[in-house]
Amino acid sequence: MDSCIFCKIIKGEIPSYKIYEDDDIFVMLDINPLSKGHTLVFPKQHFENIYDIPEELFAKIMLKSKRLAEKLKEKLNCEGIILQQNSGQKAGQSVFHLHVHLKPVFKDTEIAYEKPLRKKLTETEFEDLQNQLLLKEI
Ligand code: 5GP
Ligand code: ZN
């Protein structure tokens, strides 16, 4: 996609700190990292979000993300890793070429936890939601 910044990076029209690529996937350092080693994993083909990427390609991105997490832990000795994918502007997506974040967390990494924002639901509210969302397959 011509106007997409990540497509331009893949084509080499915009520089990046690439750490891996294969036929399908590109991995680079985030330009504005939360922490040392904040990395983005994304497909070379342009898909906007989690809804439109083919399942097999997303599965490959997740597999590579898992392996990358192991490498980051080994090389950076981080305390933990946050794996995140934002789909939709309201969910925090700012680049509309699907990507997965891997954010290493160290002792001094500050994280704006959503935990204080979590809601308390009544039993009825849980049951209504459960009925609404009940799935026969996934
Ligand atoms: P989102 O907010 O869409 O989940 O994540 C987009 C990420 O892309 C942000 O963390 C942002 O720092 C990063 N980003 C935006 N533009 C560039 C760029 O030109 N190069 C690199 N390496 N990262 C970028
Ligand atoms: Zn793109």
How would you sum up this structure, described in words?
The protein has 138 residues and is α+β, with helices and mostly antiparallel strands. Helix content is 29%, strand content 18%. It contains three helices and five strands. The chain has a five-stranded antiparallel sheet, with helices on one face. A hairpin with a 3-residue loop joins strand 1 and strand 2. The longest helix is centred in the middle third of the chain and has 22 residues. It is globular and about 55 Å long. The mean pLDDT is 97. The structure holds guanosine-5'-monophosphate and zinc ion. Zinc ion binds next to helix 1.
Question: Secondary-structure map with pairings?
Answer:
Layout: H1 5-11, E1 18-21, E2 25-29, E3 39-43, H2 55-76, E4 80-84, E5 100-105, H3 123-133
Antiparallel strand pairs: 1-2, 2-3, 3-5, 4-5
The chain binds guanosine-5'-monophosphate and zinc ion.
Residues 1, 4, 6-7, 46, 97 line the site of zinc ion.
